[in-house]
Structures are given as C-alpha cells and as structure tokens.
Amino acid sequence: MKKVPDVFHIGERAVQARADVPDTWLKQTESFVRTEMPQQHRDFFENLPMLFLALLDRTGRPWCVPAFGAPGFVVSPAPDRLELRGTPVLGNELELERSTGASVGIVGIDLTNRRRNRMNGRVQHTSGGVMAIQVDQSFGNCPQYIQTRALSAVPNEPKRTSRQWANLRDPEVRRIIEASDIFFIASRAAGSLDGGSAGVDASHRGGRPGFLGINDDGTLSFPDFSGNRFFNTLGNIESDGRVSLFIPDFETGCAVLMTGRAAIDWDSARVASFQGAERIVDVVPDEIWHATAAIPVIASAPEPWPGLDSTGTWTDARLAALKTGGYRRFEIAAKRKESDNITSFFLKPADGGPIEPHVAGQFLPIRIQKDNGTILRSYTISQGPNGQYYRLSIKREEDGLASRLLHDHLDNGDIIEVGSPSGDFVLDDGTQPIVMLSGGVGITPMIAMLDAQVAAVKDGAPQREVYFIHATQNSATQAFTEELVALARQYDWLHLLIAYSAPLKGDKLGDTHDLEARLSIDALSKLLPFGGYQFYLCGPEMFMRSLYSGLREIGVDRSHIHYEFFGAGDLGESEEITPTVVLPERANIRFARSGVQAEWTHQSGTLLETAEAAGLKPNYNCRSGKCGACAIRLVSGAVHYQRNPVITPAKGEVLTCCAVPMSEDVQIDI
C-alpha cells in the first residue's frame, strides 16, 4: 500500500503546531493513514448496520447524516473503494452532493465493542441506488469516550424521517442536547476540495451526559479531549470553520441536526472543568433541525467508557464558577421548628443560580464566617433532590458552637457558605424491602431517602416496601411528625413505626407512637414480618451498635446493613485497608503556619490528634474522613490513609483526621 503524499493539510498542521505535537511523532503516525483500506477495515465496514457521513450541500456547508441498513448494505469490492447502498438520512431533503467527484467523510462505529474506523474520499459515481466512493485516506481510531450500546432494529415498519425547523428554546431540542453522551460532527477544509488531505471529515465525540452544553448566548460548547493528535476536525475548523452536528437520541429515534461555525478556544479557563480535555470548541448555530425517525434502531442503556465519571459536564463547570475556595453563598430562606431541639433551615443560592444536585442521604459541608474565625461543619440534607433548595435539619447541642449559632442567632436572609454534597450513605438500587432504623436526629438521612423514594414511585419506579422505624424520647423530641403521618396515610407500601422511650403525659400509645420501649432487636423481630431486607441505620452510637450486633446475630449479612455515624465511629466490621507501605517508627511533624514541631510515633494517632496533642486547634468536624473540614495543605513529605476516607481531598491537600505520616519528615500548613 502506498502512503498518502500529503497526510495533513495546512489547517491540521497549524493546530498540531499550536498543540506542540513533535514532528518526529507526526512522521511516525503518517504511516497509519493509508490510501487503501486494510482487510480488517473492509470487513469492519461490511458488517456495520450504520455509518455516519459528512457531505456538502449545494452551498458548500458540511452536514453530518447517518446511513443505515442490514449488515451488507456497505460493500468493499476493492481495497480502495467502498460502496454504499441506499440513501443517507435526509440526503435528498438537504440536497447533499453525491455527484462524481464530491467529497465525503465517513466514520464507522460499532457501539457494541467501541471499535471505530475512518475513511475520507470522493464519490466515484452514484447510480442504481449505490454510491461508490474512491478512498483517499483510511485510518483507525482508539475506543476512547465511546459508550457501548446494543442496537436492534425497530420492530415495526420504520417511519419516514421528517424534519422541522427548531431552536434552542425548544424543550425537546434542549433535552436531546443536554442528555447526549455522543454526537457526530462533520467539518471541511477551506478552498477547493481536491482529495487527499483537503476534503471533508466525519468524526465522533463522546463524554458524560452534559458534556455538550448550551450557553446563555445561544452558542454550544464541548470539550476537546486528548486523542490521536491528528486534529482532523480541529484542523478543518482552523481552515474553514463550517461544521455540522448530528446529535442522536437512541431512546426515541429522534435527532438534532445543526450547521454553524466553530471556533477553538485555546486559552479558556473553562477547560479545567473537564479532566482529559485540552481545549474548548464553541459552535455558533446557523440552522437547527429536529428530525423524527432519524435513527431506525433502538438501543440498550449505555455502558459508559471507563473513567467517564471524572470528565465533567457544563453544569459542573457553571456551578464551579459560582464558588470561591470550593464554597458558595447561600441564603437562609426559611427556618422551621421540627421538634423541641431540631430546626430545619431552608437554603437557597444567594446568587440566584441553580443548586448542585445531590443524592438522598448525602451531607452538605457548610462554612459560617464569624468575627473570631471560620466554623466548618457538615449536616445531612434532610430532603430528596428538588432542584430549588437544600433543607438541613439540625439538632441544637448545648456545647455545639455551630448548632447554637444557627439556632439562636442566624435567621431568614442571613448568609452561610455551602460546599458540594458528598457521602455514600444512599439507598441501594435493588428491589428488596427497605428497613430504615433511626434514633434521634439520625432521622434526617432517612426522611431524605423516604422523600426520594416517594418521588421515584411518582415517576413510575417499582414500589418497594419501606419500614420507617424511628426511636426517640417522646412527641416533644420527634421531628417530622406531620410529614410522616401524611405519607403513611397516602402510600400503602410505607409502614411507619415509632418507639418512645420516655413518653410524655399527653402521648398516647397507638396514636402518637407504636411502642413504649427502647428499640431493640427483639422488638424489631416482632415488628417485621419474615423476609429479606436492606437495613439502614443512623443515630446515637449505642443505638446503632446494639441494632447492628442484633442483626448480625440473627443472620443478616453485613452487606445488607448500611449505616452512617455523624461523627467518628465504626461498628467494628468495616473493611480495613491492608497497608501496602511500611510506616516509619518515628516521624518529625512540622506545623508550618504555627512554627510548632512534634514527634509522631505509632501511638500518636492521626495528624489531627498529633496537632491537638501539640496544643494546636486545627479545623475538624466528623473526624472520620466524611466531611473534608480537616483538609489542609501538605507542604512536604508523604502521608498514608490507614482507612479510605469517604471524600477525596483537593490536589496537594490531606485529611488530617485519618492520615498518618509515611515519611520521616512531614510538614503541613497548620
């Protein structure tokens, strides 16, 4: 096979130079681009049920459209030729050029196994429903950012594809764009398209749902993740700028098509929100179409490309831009007394922007600025996601600096700072009945999970039996009474059981509560019918230890018992991390800001405990790696976590509450 004389055109080479791609690397990779297809590429194309093509309309604009058929609708009669039987979707309606000599770009993708190959060429002839394409360039692509899907044909006779004018204010258009984890893009080089490297190109882009974003000014943006460094699409954008996007919805068979002009943002700070991305591409739409029956296939739920979770979305980027030092200003919109010692605080963004989503059961770090310093705490969000506000239901502790400040001094309109929701104490996604066991203020994650379960059932999710079992002293200390009673009356799958250990004179068994005793495993065995359950525990330490031990004694597997401590604590059977390093016998700990030094030994505990023993008062809250309040900059040295923290500290920081020195000298910024 002979090599293409000019593998890259001037636009591609300009982008490669801007991206500091070494000439030596380019010379090595030029051999990957061929003027003929290897046999594996020919076999690959012939077995595909779909292709995506880049074709020009009569004005020279590129369009990206799919072509579908039973495997065999694409044939390669020779290594330098590909024949396509049938008409590309909307090929006639858009008046796409398929005459002799017209440029065409093709990307073939097998969504079942993440294989994809590219081919650029020119139409040799079109006759008898067959478009024959002469190969100019043939090359493969890596499987990065491809979500696998199983595709099958629509069972009924496929409908004719139709299109209608649309704009970004159309709710269905926005839904398809903002939910997309895949799209295809067509681009072209400037000037006459005479084959070789100077032609049109079709390419695939993938990411987390939300990686393709709609901006307030009506433009679209997407991150350009690191790839093969050929820069075929970006080179065309540099050369000409005209592009087309095809954004499929594999659930409905609809798609959004658009043409417009693209530009590369090389210097944008926005790219920092997308791990693995190197620049941002912005598109100004010219035409937008909503097409129905554009994809005559149905697809299974996608299996994301490994590592996709960390790549970011535009929602993440916009929320991050609203924060300073990881926190954002929220206003107390309302306060509501839930019991004698628990008050709910309803928090709304002071900047008027959207709230960061959370999963029911997670906690929210908050920061309160005081004249004498900053107070950091974390509290469970006591309501399921609603997209409007967070509800924190906080118990007033006599020796609690933050809780007394919130209860006694802060009121509607006051500002507190809010971090990102975190934590993994959330409902499983199984079908077994759920038993929620809470004591005191431990009711807060349970009421949030129940709220989310109600919302899921309303949205059509299968009903799961829920046993909501709460223990408290009496009606004065019980929170959310009216809310729970109303839900129990409305849903027959919800079983509400309340235990009072010290009922008041006005409390009435069978009315205000169901049991007059401390909640025990014996009482629980009588309350629950025989069967398999997923248990969720939260409350005072002794309450949880007693129930956990009892559940294990009656044979409940520990994988079916989920729990959360509000402070430091463990029920004794969690998986320990096996140390893979040898810790020093002694270490010198230097606290850079205070100028204090301390010697650490195996008996000294964590860095937080070492600092406290040295007379320092560093920030902390949970003391178990769940809130991040103790995070501090690591100036030098290395540390080791003997137990995995729930959250990951920022780069260059350590969680002092669960870190120990791994080197003989450690310096931290306390």
UniProtKB/TrEMBL annotation:
<dbReference type="InterPro" id="IPR001041">
    <property type="entry name" value="2Fe-2S_ferredoxin-type"/>
</dbReference>
<dbReference type="InterPro" id="IPR017938">
    <property type="entry name" value="Riboflavin_synthase-like_b-brl"/>
</dbReference>
<feature type="domain" description="FAD-binding FR-type">
    <location>
        <begin position="325"/>
        <end position="428"/>
    </location>
</feature>
<dbReference type="InterPro" id="IPR039261">
    <property type="entry name" value="FNR_nucleotide-bd"/>
</dbReference>
<dbReference type="InterPro" id="IPR001433">
    <property type="entry name" value="OxRdtase_FAD/NAD-bd"/>
</dbReference>
<dbReference type="Pfam" id="PF00970">
    <property type="entry name" value="FAD_binding_6"/>
</dbReference>
<dbReference type="InterPro" id="IPR008333">
    <property type="entry name" value="Cbr1-like_FAD-bd_dom"/>
</dbReference>
<dbReference type="Pfam" id="PF00175">
    <property type="entry name" value="NAD_binding_1"/>
</dbReference>
<dbReference type="InterPro" id="IPR012349">
    <property type="entry name" value="Split_barrel_FMN-bd"/>
</dbReference>
<dbReference type="InterPro" id="IPR012675">
    <property type="entry name" value="Beta-grasp_dom_sf"/>
</dbReference>
<dbReference type="InterPro" id="IPR036010">
    <property type="entry name" value="2Fe-2S_ferredoxin-like_sf"/>
</dbReference>
<dbReference type="InterPro" id="IPR006058">
    <property type="entry name" value="2Fe2S_fd_BS"/>
</dbReference>
<protein>
    <submittedName>
        <fullName>Pyridoxamine 5'-phosphate oxidase family protein</fullName>
    </submittedName>
</protein>
<dbReference type="InterPro" id="IPR017927">
    <property type="entry name" value="FAD-bd_FR_type"/>
</dbReference>
<feature type="domain" description="2Fe-2S ferredoxin-type">
    <location>
        <begin position="587"/>
        <end position="670"/>
    </location>
</feature>
<dbReference type="Pfam" id="PF00111">
    <property type="entry name" value="Fer2"/>
</dbReference>
